[in-house]
Write a structure and sequence with these properties.
This protein is an all-alpha fold. The protein is 82% helix and 0% strand. The longest helix is centred in the first third of the chain and has 28 residues.
Amino acid sequence: MEKQGDNYKQMIFRNFILFLLPFLLVVKTGSANSSVYDDRLYNCFISSDMLEWQKVIADLEKEFETTKSVKVEFQLLHAQYGFIGFLLGSKRTLLGEEYIAKADKHIANLLKSNPKWVEVMALEAAILAYKISLRPYKAPFLGPRSMSLIDDALKLEPNNIYALIEKGNSKHYAPSYVGGSPTEAIVQYQKAITGIKSSNKTNTWWYLNTLTQLALAAEKAKNYTLASKTYKEILSIEPNFKWVKDELYPKFLKKTAKG
């Protein structure tokens, strides 16, 4: 009888843990599906499948509408940020502007919940940079605001990965007459990469993207040794990364072979 009682207690305890598990996952990650979304976005990124990326965004929108979780909303914002970059890079500006408007709403909402949310401040700076790329005449107004957001974010958290990435992007893509410098971009990207590695977030699309931006900045700075090393590192991590494998690295090899 005592043994049966122990078995019954074990069964009750096991069922209790199984009942709690989904809630524990939500507390830890902000969404029970958080890692699933990360995996889907990673696969979209390496295969350049932006139709699927758009579906991930739609799924995140549905989950946010259901949960109203700020962590889900942040993940949604970050997915939109990546998608907007693709849209503007492929000259799909009208759809890009639609997603910028959506991102603006999420930024306002997230900063309302926490005005010093450093990651959101960094993404707001990035969205402002996207707006400048669409309407360069706004650069004198939006550029300083974007840089100020990044600087404020880094004052709050000097080693914040998102803020370091956007500092790198600002140095990488801004003209030299307003402070752009690929050499300085390299420093910021390397700091961000160190942070990503130490936080065990290397299985994310934005880790591969930061490495890629590092390689591109190194090319621009004519640091071909670093660029070559970084491209090789990217392909050793993810041999099927289409953007680097089929486009960027072959172009780099062709360019450096001529030199």
